[in-house]
Amino acid sequence: MKTKVAIIGAGISGASIARVLSKYENLEVHLIEKAPDVGWGVSKANTALIHGGYDDDPDKYPNRARLCIMGNRLWHRWVKELEIPHVWNGALIVATEEEDFDELERLLERGRRNGVPEMRIIDRDEVFHLEPGLTRDAIGALWVPIVGQIGPIPAVIALVENAVANGVKTHLETEVTGIKVENGEVKGVETNNGFIEADIVINAAGLYADEIARMAGIDYFEIHPRKGEYWLFDEGIPGPRRVLFPTPTPISKGIVVTTEISGHLMIGPNAQDLPPEEKDNLATTEEGLEQVWEGAKKLWPQLPPRSRVIRTFAGLRPEPTGGDFIIKAEEEVQGFINVAGIRSPGLTSAPAIAYEVAGIIERDLGVKLVEKERWNPYRREITHFFMLKPEQVNEMIKRNPAYGKIVCRCNNVSEGDVLEAIERMKAIGVKTPSVDSVKFRTKATTGTCQGSFCRPRIIQLLAKEYGVEPWEVTLKGRGSEIGVGDVKALLRGDEA
Amino acid sequence: MEPMPQIPMLSYDVVVIGGGPAGMAAAAKAKELGLNVLLLDENDYLGGILPQCIHPGFGIHYFKEELTGPEFAARLAKRMIENGVEYRTSARVLEIRNYSDLEKVVIFTSPSGVYQVWAKAIIYAAGARERHAFEIGIVGDRVAGIYTAGEAQTLMDIYGVLPGKEIVIVGSGDVGLIMARRFALEGAKVKAVVELMPYPGGLARNVMILRDFNIPLYLGHRVVEVRGKGRVQRVKIVKVDENLNEVPGSEFWIEADTLVISAGLIPSVKKLKKIGVEIDPSTGGPVVNDRLETSVPGIFVAGNSLLINDLVDYVAEQGELAAEGAKEFIEKGGIESRKWVKVEKGANVRLVAPHYLSGDRDLYLYLRVSRPMENVEVRIPETGKKVRLPVVKPAEMVRVKLRAEEIRKAQERLTVEVVGA
Ligand SMILES: Cc1cc2nc3c(=O)[nH]c(=O)nc-3n(C[C@H](O)[C@H](O)[C@H](O)COP(=O)(O)OP(=O)(O)OC[C@H]3O[C@@H](n4cnc5c(N)ncnc54)[C@H](O)[C@@H]3O)c2cc1C
Ligand SMILES: Cc1cc2nc3c(=O)[nH]c(=O)nc-3n(C[C@H](O)[C@H](O)[C@H](O)COP(=O)(O)OP(=O)(O)OC[C@H]3O[C@@H](n4cnc5c(N)ncnc54)[C@H](O)[C@@H]3O)c2cc1C
């Protein structure tokens, strides 16, 4: 008989766990997510860095220190297997004062302890050789070549597609409302879509992991949100080639300046602690954005005029009591595993977290894991028109003319790309058509015009493929419908 | 440049990029002048943004008759098609390459494939894009219900979708005002039109719309924040002082489910920038001579890609001028270099085009002022030219005709100024 596993939360943690557990013959894995699509929680808005593993103190935060570097190493493999957009461009932690070198030495030492390869402190000349546009105040830096960047939501999507291809079942728009525990053993999860039976429940619910834990009677930790805000600029604005950090202070890694993987200059985040009840407060603020601007200017003096911004956004870090990742099988509730407080560097650590969880299942829950004879480690990236050569497009067009027609003019996304995205949405169980689901798969609407040309066309395609009226198509799930009805709805009195 | 033997090759005298009024007028005219023309547009239909502008107010100068946007577009399309202009819709130009002065390559994609077109000249008429919420510094939640005016208009008039029922509009230019009326006519409640400047941006007849429909206009105010869960729920507005700084404590909220941004257009010239076309920061479009030729020989530009026009009539006029330029270019193997007279911006002139004049032809100067004034003269001291106007506004383009002999009076430069009469 198969052991039934319910993973709560399809963020980078839950998706990584689902992929790793999909390797085993004797597990039946269910991935449960309240949002309409995967990767829309904390994993959606972050700096997208695959960190170097040098800044977490192994004495204070042993899990973070250990899993970050392991995760970094694993991502180097996973991005290839899963065709996840990435760049390995390295990071510079920049010193602008003599005293900063003391901190860089400490980071170097800590990095060595954590097992980070190839780091070194470099002098002013080498810094400017690597990064000519850096502030003239720079006097040296810690150079960490293993740092990289990935597309965080594309990564979650890739993991889930791969997990589903290997037999994992998804339950989207399914909110866990209770955990059934009998005689100290989990029996399953209650949801708005009914009961899902499970022998093992893995709590990877991001900001809400404390609430889920409490449903199982576990209340030794709490999670509060820590907001970080960002500016993202139009393409063509010169940004750094490396990821630039200031020398960290005891409270913060500081505001990063980077060219994100699509080639846009990005700055952020700041850090603002919010009360636990504000877990959905993702609003940007004038003060927060100002703080980011001032911080970034110190490293990258040639910021563009503010009118060249194409987007500002905010993310919430799930900060746990104690500060370290909480990854363990809870003894008082047999079969309940917490993967909680996965704050930064959670994106980096996710693959390592997933192997950790598999280990816990074997070691602490005593389930002997049997590998599948055939497990498919590969997943093919969605077609991106903008990555194809003209002759390749012409090959595609022979099969489907939609690949020749551009929908998003800023990023050259074809109708074929969008239709393929919709197909893939359906394949992992996305039930509510949303523009954001298409956006995260194709990059449509993320360019200079922010969708004002292509959004109506995407809405049209979604409406057709999902068989709904165009005004029922959503931006990001129920409650975000793009219209109230057909043009005459109000005149007819359809709407109150 | 790499040759591309693998992709089908077409060959024309001129390729026109964009099938809006500028492109259609250019293509029709070029054909009439005997050139072999291909027009490309990425939309499924011809007309650019006109098919979505279902209100009247188009064509008074060009067709001497007041038409709606679709009617204006249809007339141009008819003229162009009857002339035998070849065109393709659903055809997006991906790249322009300047192979040599007399050989350009345009690469486009379409449902029938990717093609390369070799041409002697290009007329670029790709229109403009709208400024969006992030560019104008609006913070808060990223929710449904925030649209640019053009997007809202497309949803309503092309796709038949009503975006919302309680509307706040940012910007009191003609586009914002026309959208206010459009929403009101469909039974939506337009709760406010919010204008940063102390005066309304649009034509007086369009400002009247607000009175007709009882829509409050907040002058000297700015929308700063949007909040909502899923969908817009409320919009924060603050007052600004003469320097456009926020007045502390002046903020208030309006409940609405939709925010429409009508905060101006920006010429779409990315593809031109990539091949090194010089851009005028004040128009956002290319620097051009009086044939509307850009700094790259043989590439001409017209319409909203040249500078933002408020009248489609001027757009069509520019298209024809660009076609004449292309004809001359092809016939003579280039626009002759000559002693160009440079146009300089004087008092209260925010932007002006064209930038270089030959003095061998009459032409129109298109300009915009920085601030509104009444009872003014447009003066060009070097030529002795004076044109009286009762009123000028930043949102209204001023068009001044200059005769060749007037231009020739200027030596190297001429200065355009708008001063009290
Ligand atoms: C500003 C910021 C910057 C960051 N920068 C980096 C970085 O550069 N590098 C890095 O490594 N890390 C970074 N991080 C951290 C990283 O983003 C997180 O550690 C990681 O995304 C957490 O993923 P998760 O899967 O644990 O949580 P989530 O992505 O939040 O996934 C949890 C999921 O659970 C779902 N859920 C919650 N409750 C329920 C319920 N009751 N029923 C069903 N589903 C539920 C949620 O909808 C969500 O999708 C950053 C974080 C922030 C906020
Ligand atoms: C809401 C609104 C109300 C208006 N009201 C009036 C009015 O009452 N009276 C009036 O006279 N004017 C009005 N106008 C202005 C007038 O419509 C414009 O000035 C005019 O349409 C601009 O024409 P254009 O040809 O330059 O650009 P567009 O009409 O924008 O056409 C450009 C075309 O180029 C295409 N294109 C762009 N890039 C490419 C590419 N790479 N490959 C292929 N095709 C491409 C676009 O899809 C588009 O079809 C209004 C405008 C708006 C938005």
UniProtKB/TrEMBL annotation, chain A:
Record domain FAD dependent oxidoreductase: where: 4-358
InterPro entries linked: BFD-like_2Fe2S-bd_dom, BFD-like_2Fe2S-bd_dom_sf, FAD-dep_OxRdtase, FAD/NAD-bd_sf, G3P_Oxidase/Oxidoreductase
Domain BFD-like [2Fe-2S]-binding: residue ranges: 406-463
Domain of life from the UniProt record: Archaea
Protein name: FAD/NAD(P)-binding oxidoreductase
